[in-house]
Specification:
alpha/beta, five-stranded mixed beta barrel, five-stranded parallel beta sheet
Length: about 475
């Protein structure tokens, strides 16, 4: 096909090159512009109104930011879009943080957004409502996934500030109710830029500790800005993934946070959280009594049903035949018992008669006469034995008296009774028989019939 002045079958000639001129391609120019913009505007905050918002099937979010004099295209990539705390909408004033990039196919520059915050009055509340609605659609608030707190926990983990009044209030209540409770504290900031990340990290760390029974996330009261860390999606996801029961005790009784909705149990205050974790003794006693009553009622109901089932079975005709056989066997047993009793009675009567006959035969021997004769024989033997003993004693006694008389005659004491004395040396060990055995000045001891004397030799006479 040919047209006037143009032949598609011919090869176009290259334009002549001008000496000294340096040219770049469109791609090269676009790449250089993108590099300059990306370096110069690497991390910027841009304030503007959202318009032309489009949600792509790929998960990316496309929109424009504009003010009264200009506009800029913006994109939130899928990975960053999942982490946004609130979703932008047309006509909403926002503050977007990102990097300027160039979209080469169209030669447009655009803002690659990493984070978005709403602007104006009620912006935090709007972010709160949007995140709440998102998590509710995903089922994070469903009552079916809520777990009850353990009855008697042994180890409790707490994520809160280590220097605030909250931890002191919680520990005071726990010590009063259960002094031996093991408490693990993960210190985390509860307000500020990195507070949400630290709270979420504390939940993850405590949930990995073996033997932990419950995790408490706690903070005192404050404004919506102060509680923002507990309205963060990161904290909500950490509570959802925690494998053990969680308890949220953030703010006062009238304060509600995203953490309150996601946690298994919400406490109105930190002190109330400690009371909910460790039940009072009276509450446990009441609970035990209630369970005991339910157990008794269940047992009575089961017994009643069992008795009714047994009665229904017993009324069946199959068992009626068995009952007839049992009644016949019982009647036969009664008859055998009566015959056995009659036989025992007859044997007893015969035994009694035999005993009477033996008693009559025994009475014929007259045991009383035989006993009297043996008693007389015993008395005669006793009198003879007594006389023999007296004779055996008198003869030795006479010999003993004669020997005693002779002993008295030979006794030195008998001589002393006639006026004699016995002279001993000073120690009383040796008898002095001769005057030559002592000398003047020697001490002597003189034994008399009654008593003794101490003497000293003044002179001695030698017998010729």
């Amino acid at each position: 096909m040919k047209q006037k002045g143009l032949d598609f079958g011919e090869t176009r000639a290259e334009p002549p090159k001008v000496p000294g001129r340096r040219s770049v391609t469109v791609s090269e120019l676009t790449e250089r512009i993108g590099s300059v913009l990306g370096t110069e505007f690497f991390d910027v905050w841009v304030e503007g109104e959202v318009s032309n918002l489009k949600l792509a099937d790929s998960g990316h979010v496309y929109f424009s930011l504009k003010d009264d004099r200009a506009q800029i295209r913006a994109v939130v990539w899928r990975k960053a879009a999942r982490l946004l705390r609130f979703k932008p909408a047309d006509g909403v004033q926002v503050l977007a943080r990102g990097t300027i990039q160039v979209y080469a196919p169209r030669g447009d520059y655009q803002l690659s957004v990493e984070a978005i915050e709403p602007l104006g009055k009620g912006s935090l509340q709007q972010a709160f409502e949007e995140l709440k609605e998102k998590l509710q659609r995903e089922g994070l608030f469903d009552a079916a996934r809520k777990r009850p707190l353990p009855m008697l926990p042994q180890r409790v983990g707490i994520v809160t500030s280590p220097t605030g009044a909250v931890i002191r209030d919680i520990l005071r209540v726990l010590r009063r109710r259960y002094r031996n409770l093991d408490v693990l504290l993960y210190p985390a900031r509860v307000q500020g830029e990195d507070a949400a990340w630290e709270v979420a990290q504390g939940i993850r760390v405590l949930s990995a500790i073996p033997g932990l029974d419950v995790v408490i996330v706690a903070r005192g009261g404050g404004s919506l800005e102060d509680l923002q860390a507990f309205n963060d999606e990161t904290v909500a996801r950490a509570l959802e993934a925690c494998p053990i029961p969680t308890l949220s005790a953030v703010g006062h009784e009238t304060d509600y946070t995203i953490a309150d909705f996601v946690a298994d149990v919400r406490a109105p205050t930190p002190s109330a959280a400690a009371e909910m974790v460790v039940k009072a003794k009276e509450e446990l006693s009441l609970r035990l009594r209630h369970l005991d009553g339910r157990r008794e009622g269940a047992l009575r109901l089961r017994f009643a049903r069992t008795r009714a089932a047994l009665a229904a079975l017993a009324a069946h005709r199959v068992f009626e035949a068995e009952r007839g056989r049992l009644r016949t066997a019982a009647q036969r047993t009664d008859e055998l018992v009566r015959r056995a009793q009659a036989g025992l009675t007859r044997r007893g009567e015969r035994a009694r008669e035999h005993l009477l006959r033996l008693d009559e035969r025994a009475s014929a021997f007259r045991f009383d006469r035989q006993l009297a004769a043996r008693r007389e024989t015993l008395l005669r033997h006793r009198e003879g034995l007594a006389g023999a003993i007296r004779q055996a004693i008198e003869a030795p006694r006479g010999r003993l008296a004669r020997a005693a008389g002779k002993l008295d005659t030979l006794s030195p004491l008998a001589v002393l009774s006639r006026g004699y004395a016995v002279v001993f040396d000073a120690e009383g060990r040796r008898i002095v028989r001769r005057s030559s055995e002592v000398g003047p000045g020697d001490a002597l001891r003189i034994r008399l019939q009654a008593g003794a004397l101490r003497a000293t030799v003044t002179e001695r006479e030698i017998a010729e």
